[in-house]
C-alpha cells in the first residue's frame, strides 16, 4: 500500500514526520476517504532534503519546479505571497500517488501520537493539534473533519 511505502521511505531517510490529513483523521477513528498522504516534518533544510530524497526513492517528483533548498530558503515568501501551504509530490507514472508536505507547520511543535496500522507504527498529529491545523485551513473538508474529530475527543 502506498501509505506504507511513504512511511517506510521517510523512516529509512530519518525524517521525523506525522500524518496530518485524511489518513490522520481516519487513524483517529473517523470515517474518511482520501487518496493523498499529507504530512508535517521539521522546518529545517535537512528535514526538507531528507524528505525530498525519501519521496524521490518512491518515484515521486515535486509538482512545482522547487527543491528542498528552495522551500527552506523561501518558505515565508511562498506562504505569504504565493499562497503555497504545501509542497506537493506526485508520481508521474501514477498520479494517484501523491504526498503533500505542509510547509506551514513544524512537527517539532505539534503533539503526536503513535497508531498501529497496516502492521506498522504510524505517527499522527494528536486530535487537538489536528483540529487547530484544520481550523486554520478552513476548507469545507477540513470543517467536516473538525466535526468528526470533536466527536472523538
Features:
153 residues, Beta Polymerase, domain 2, five-stranded mixed beta sheet
Give the structural class: alpha+beta
> What is the C-alpha radius of gyration, as a whole number of Å?
15 Å
- The CATH topology is Beta Polymerase, domain 2
Quantity of strands, as a count:
7
Number of helices: 6
CATH class: Alpha Beta
Give the uncertain stretches in residue-range form: none
- For the termini, the CA-CA separation is 29 Å
CATH architectural arrangement:
2-Layer Sandwich
Q: How large a portion of the residues is in β-strands, by DSSP E?
A: 15-25%
Secondary-structure element order, N to C: HEHEHEHEEEEHH
Topology, pairings included?
Blueprint: H1 2-12, E1 17-19, H2 22-27, E2 37-41, H3 45-57, E3 61-62, H4 68-82, E4 86-91, E5 94-102, E6 112-117, E7 120-125, H5 127-137, H6 140-152
Parallel strand pairs: 2-5
Antiparallel strand pairs: 1-2, 3-4, 4-5, 6-7
Helix pairs in contact: 1-3, 3-4, 5-6
Task: Provide a descriptive summary of the structure in words.
With about 150 residues, the chain is of the alpha+beta class. The protein has one domain: Beta Polymerase, domain 2. The chain has helices spanning about 1-10, 20-25, 45-55, 70-80, 125-135, 140-150; strands spanning about 15-20, 35-40, 60, 85-90, 95-100, 110-115, 120-125. The protein has a 5-stranded mixed β-sheet with strand order 1-2-5-4-3. Strand 4 and strand 5 (about 95-100) form a beta hairpin. Helix 1 (about 1-10) crosses helix 3 (about 45-55). The longest helix has 15 residues, at about 70-80. The chain is globular, with a radius of gyration of 15 Å. It starts with a helix and ends with a helix.
Amino acid at each position: 500500500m502506498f501509505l506504507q511505502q511513504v512511511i517506510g521511505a521517510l523512516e529509512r531517510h530519518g525524517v521525523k514526520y506525522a500524518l496530518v490529513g485524511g489518513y490522520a483523521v481516519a487513524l483517529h477513528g473517523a470515517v474518511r476517504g482520501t487518496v493523498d498522504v499529507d504530512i508535517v516534518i521539521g522546518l529545517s533544510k535537512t528535514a526538507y532534503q531528507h524528505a525530498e530524497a525519501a519521496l524521490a526513492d518512491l518515484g515521486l517528483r515535486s509538482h512545482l519546479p522547487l527543491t528542498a533548498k528552495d522551500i527552506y530558503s523561501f518558505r515565508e515568501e511562498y506562504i505569504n505571497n504565493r499562497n503555497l501551504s504545501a509542497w506537493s509530490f506526485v508520481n508521474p507514472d501514477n498520479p494517484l500517488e501523491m504526498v503533500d508536505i505542509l510547509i506551514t507547520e513544524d512537527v517539532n511543535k505539534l503533539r503526536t501520537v503513535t497508531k498501529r496500522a497496516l502492521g506498522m507504527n504510524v505517527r499522527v498529529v494528536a486530535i487537538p493539534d489536528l483540529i487547530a491545523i484544520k481550523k486554520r485551513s478552513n476548507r469545507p473538508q477540513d470543517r467536516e473533519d473538525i466535526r468528526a474529530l470533536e466527536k472523538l475527543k
